[in-house]
Design brief:
Radius of gyration: 35 Å
Distance between the termini: 87 Å
CATH topology of the largest domain: Immunoglobulin-like
Keywords: Bacterial flagellum biogenesis, Cell projection, Cilium, Flagellum
Number of helices: 3
Order of helices and strands: HHHEEEEEEEEEEEEE
Protein name: Basal-body rod modification protein FlgD
Family: Belongs to the FlgD family.
Function: Required for flagellar hook formation. May act as a scaffolding protein.
Largest sheet: 5 strands, antiparallel
Number of domains: 2
Structural class: alpha+beta
InterPro entries: FlgD, FlgD/Vpr_Ig-like
Amino acid sequence: MSSTNIASDALMSTLNAGWNTTTEDSTTDNNTLDQNTFMTLLLTQLQNQDPTKPMDSTEYLAQLAQFTNVTELQNLRSTVEDLSSSLQASQTVAASNLVGHLVMVEGKQGYLLSNYTLDGQVELGKAADAVNVKISDSSGQLVRTLNLGAQNAGTIDFSWDGKNSSGTDLAAGLYRFSVETVTDGTTGTATTVLPLPVQSVTVGDAKKATEMTLNVPGLSEGLTLGEIRRIL
């Protein structure tokens, strides 16, 4: 019998053994089994080849390299998923600690707490001769105007004592804020940053690419951690 036939018989024997193993244990990982089978085939080929006429093992080596790359990619994917889960867990803990706290967020609604002042900010893109912060209740009725006077460009802090224009204390809850600026006789607007209380946290799902959100009054879609300017 020639060395080629011996090598072929040995390879067929190895293939049959690998096939039997596959059918007997369906729980074995297919990628690992295939990679091990090809390694066994390669070694069998080398052991049974004719030293004077070595068989070409390039194709087997190339196939084995492909299996190795697949395994490495799977390991990398597993590592990334583990890191993602760990990061999400850390963010969930951090977010849960915000429940019951006020957070400063860019927007037009601020929450007035009972017996507290509401501290907000106006972000001016350019200097203004006059800056007026108008506050309205949930029905849209104007309850107070804060005159901040002339201001340079930048962030301007303001504080509202929770009273209307008559000096009466208003109920706790959401109020709407708008800014009117006057520069050289021309009116304009500006952005406000206002406090909102974090009531609860909705955990995101990394597999569905949904972010964790902080549930606050007035915003049905909630807030992400990246939208928070400051924690009070």
